[in-house]
C-alpha cells in the first residue's frame, strides 16, 4: 500500500527565510522578535506535499531545486509545526534527516498572504485525514456487527389481506336506481308508503248545476208505451224539481 501511494503538492511558495533559533527556555512559546529577522541564515523555496496521511514541508533551492531540509508532519497543530506568539508570518518547524536526527528551525514569509496559504494547506490536509479515519472506523464497525437475516426460511409464507375492506354500519350500501334520462332516483325510505293526493270535495256550483232525472214511477197501470210517450213530450210539460 505504501508503494502505491503517490505524492501530491499542497502548496508552493517561492520565497521563504530560514532562521537559527535559540533553545526554548520556558513553556511560554517561541517569539520571532528573539531571532535575527534582518539576517536570515538561508533563503529558498518552500513546498508542502503529502504522501498518504503524512504531510511534508520541503525547503529547496530556488534555482536547482536541491533539497535543503525536510520536516515530516503527522498531525497539525502539533510539535512538528508551531506558531510564534508575536507574529502570524513566522513558524517553528522540526526538520529531520534520514538517520533520525532532528532540529528546530524558524521559517518566515515576507508576505502575510503566503503565511496564510501555508497554514490553510496544512489544515485542509489533516481535516481530510480525520474524515478518512472516521469513515474507515465506521466501515470496520459495520463489518463486525451481526447482519440481520431478512430472508424467508424454508416453508415460511406471508399473508396479505388486500381486498378486506369494511363497510359502514347498517349493512351494505344500497344500489341507486337509474330513471329515464340518466337521472338517479333515490329509493323510498324503508317502511314508508307513497301518499295518494286527496280528491277535492265537489263544489256547491257543481252541485247546483247537476240535475237529476225524475224518478220513474212504478205502476202496474202504466204500460211501457205510456212511458215512451211521456219521454217524447215537450220539456215544458215535464215538471222538473226546482232543486236537486
From TrEMBL:
SUPFAM superfamilies: PH domain-like (SSF50729). Keywords: Cell membrane, Cytoplasmic vesicle, Endocytosis, Membrane, Phosphoprotein, Protein transport, Repeat, Transport. Belongs to the NECAP family. Residues 6-163 form the NECAP PHear domain. One of its GO terms (cellular component) is plasma membrane. This is Adaptin ear-binding coat-associated protein 1. Involved in endocytosis. It comes from the Eukaryota. It is found in: Cell membrane; Cytoplasmic vesicle, Clathrin-coated vesicle membrane. Residues 191-203 have a biased composition (Pro residues). Residues 191-212 are annotated as: Disordered. GO terms for biological process: endocytosis; protein transport. It comes from Herpetotheres cachinnans (Laughing falcon).
Amino acid at each position: 500500500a505504501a508503494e502505491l501511494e503517490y505524492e501530491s503538492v499542497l502548496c508552493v511558495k517561492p520565497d521563504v527565510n530560514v532562521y537559527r533559533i535559540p533553545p526554548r527556555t520556558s513553556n511560554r512559546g517561541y517569539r520571532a522578535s528573539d531571532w535575527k529577522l534582518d539576517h536570515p541564515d538561508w533563503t529558498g523555496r518552500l513546498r508542502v506535499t503529502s504522501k498518504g496521511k503524512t504531510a511534508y514541508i520541503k525547503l529547496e533551492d530556488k534555482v536547482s531545486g536541491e533539497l535543503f531540509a525536510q520536516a515530516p508532519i503527522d498531525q497539525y497543530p502539533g510539535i512538528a509545526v508551531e506558531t510564534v506568539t508575536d507574529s502570524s508570518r513566522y513558524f517553528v518547524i522540526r526538520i529531520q534527516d534520514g538517520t533520525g536526527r532532528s532540529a528546530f528551525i524558524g521559517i518566515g514569509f515576507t508576505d502575510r498572504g503566503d503565511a496564510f496559504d501555508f497554514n490553510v494547506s496544512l489544515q485542509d490536509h489533516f481535516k481530510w485525514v480525520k474524515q478518512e479515519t472516521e469513515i474507515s472506523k465506521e466501515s470496520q464497525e459495520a463489518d463486525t456487527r451481526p447482519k440481520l437475516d431478512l430472508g424467508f426460511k424454508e416453508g415460511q409464507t406471508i399473508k396479505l389481506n388486500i381486498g378486506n375492506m369494511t363497510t359502514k354500519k347498517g349493512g351494505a350500501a344500497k344500489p341507486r336506481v337509474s330513471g329515464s334520462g340518466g337521472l338517479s332516483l333515490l329509493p323510498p325510505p324503508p317502511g314508508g308508503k307513497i301518499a295518494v293526493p286527496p280528491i277535492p270535495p265537489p263544489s256547491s256550483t257543481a252541485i247546483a248545476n247537476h240535475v237529476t232525472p225524475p224518478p220513474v214511477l212504478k205502476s202496474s197501470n202504466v204500460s211501457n208505451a205510456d212511458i215512451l210517450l211521456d219521454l217524447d213530450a215537450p220539456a215544458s210539460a215535464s215538471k222538473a224539481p226546482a232543486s236537486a
